[in-house]
């Protein structure tokens, strides 16, 4: 029973982290699915979303507003607005001018934007860790305190529910809305979509905005979960989310979700049964192993060359 509780604890921890990886990974996979490029500034947009949420929470506390639902809603809205604006700006500044050029040029442009945003936050907020208030506390305990107690915190439940809502809303948006159908058309054939009257520039910008908004949600959730943020907060999470997107199949939204969950569970089980020092080794080894047998990722589809 003790071993089962311990395994369940690691599984819960892995699904918690994996859920946020999936939210960030969707930004990578949507951009790649539409224009075939990797947005390496996406991790920094996620980090800026976390900082914006913290500033909003601090401002509300200064005004004496402490009602938890209102604080969370305002912080989430502010983070999504700022992050979405950043996503739109990154597309206009770093991608649109070099679209259609050799793929190396947009890659260098995105890396330059990533470095710029990191240093901007360094100058604006300082390089030290900043504490993030634990707004959601408490939880459930299972098992005997004499052996091992499995905990399921309210924060983890919040992450699960929020991720499920975001994923469901995105799925409905892509499948039912007019912009969602246009996104699918552009991802299949950008040139033909242009000929059919679809404003492809608007659709590509919308893709960056949607991905940035989901990253902001993940920034608020992980900020509260870990309890601190710093200017490099987005680099590591962005790298893990990109790995999750490749693992699930870059360009596939369900693949990004699945890849994030698998990566989170793999890291948690490695930390629980081996050592936290090996979690990155196991995660990237798993990625290499899967790509050796399925180069397109778990749910990715091979590209068909149009003639």
Automatic annotation (TrEMBL):
TM helices/strands, residue ranges: 20-38, 45-65, 71-90, 102-121, 154-174, 203-226
GO molecular function: L-isoleucine transmembrane transporter activity; L-leucine transmembrane transporter activity; L-phenylalanine transmembrane transporter activity; L-valine transmembrane transporter activity
Keywords tagged on the record: Amino-acid transport, Cell inner membrane, Cell membrane, Membrane, Transmembrane, Transmembrane helix, Transport
One GO term (biological process): L-isoleucine import across plasma membrane
Xref: Pfam families: BPD_transp_2
The keyword Transport is annotated on this UniProt entry: yes
Keyword Transmembrane helix included in the entry's annotation: yes
Membrane topology: Multi-pass membrane protein
Gene Ontology CC entries for this record: plasma membrane
Chief localisation class: membrane
Subcellular location: Cell inner membrane
Family: Belongs to the binding-protein-dependent transport system permease family. LivHM subfamily.
NCBIfam families in the cross-refs: PRK10740.1
Name of the featured protein: Branched-chain amino acid ABC transporter permease LivH
Taxonomic source organism: Marinobacter lutaoensis
């Amino acid at each position: 029973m003790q071993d089962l509780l311990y395994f369940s604890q690691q599984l819960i921890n892995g699904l918690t982290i994996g859920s946020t990886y999936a939210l960030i990974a969707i930004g990578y996979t949507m951009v790649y699915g539409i224009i075939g490029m990797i947005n390496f500034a996406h991790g920094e947009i996620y980090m800026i979303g976390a900082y914006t949420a913290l500033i909003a929470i601090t401002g509300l506390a200064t005004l004496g507003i402490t009602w938890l639902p209102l604080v969370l809603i305002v912080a989430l809205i502010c983070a999504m607005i700022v992050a979405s604006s950043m996503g739109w700006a990154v597309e206009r500044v770093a991608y649109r001018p070099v679209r259609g050029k050799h793929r190396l040029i947009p890659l260098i442009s995105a890396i330059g934007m990533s470095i710029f945003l990191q240093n901007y936050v360094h100058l604006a907020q300082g390089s030290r860790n900043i504490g993030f208030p634990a707004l959601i506390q408490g939880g459930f305990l299972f098992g005997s305190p004499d052996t091992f107690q499995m905990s399921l915190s309210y924060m983890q439940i919040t992450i699960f529910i929020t991720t499920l809502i975001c994923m469901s809303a995105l799925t409905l948006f892509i499948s039912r809305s007019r912009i969602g159908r246009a996104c699918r058309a552009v991802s299949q054939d950008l040139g033909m979509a242009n000929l059919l009257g679809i404003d492809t520039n608007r659709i590509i910008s919308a893709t960056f905005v949607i991905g940035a908004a989901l990253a902001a949600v993940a920034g608020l959730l992980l900020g509260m979960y870990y309890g601190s943020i710093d200017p490099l907060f987005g680099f590591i999470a962005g790298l893990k989310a990109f790995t999750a997107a490749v693992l699930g199949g870059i360009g596939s939204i369900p693949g990004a979700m699945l890849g994030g969950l698998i990566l989170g569970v793999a890291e948690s089980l490695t930390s629980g049964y081996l050592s936290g020092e090996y979690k990155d080794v196991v995660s990237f080894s798993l990625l290499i192993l899967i790509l050796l047998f399925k180069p397109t990722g778990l749910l990715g589809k091979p590209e068909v060359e149009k003639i």
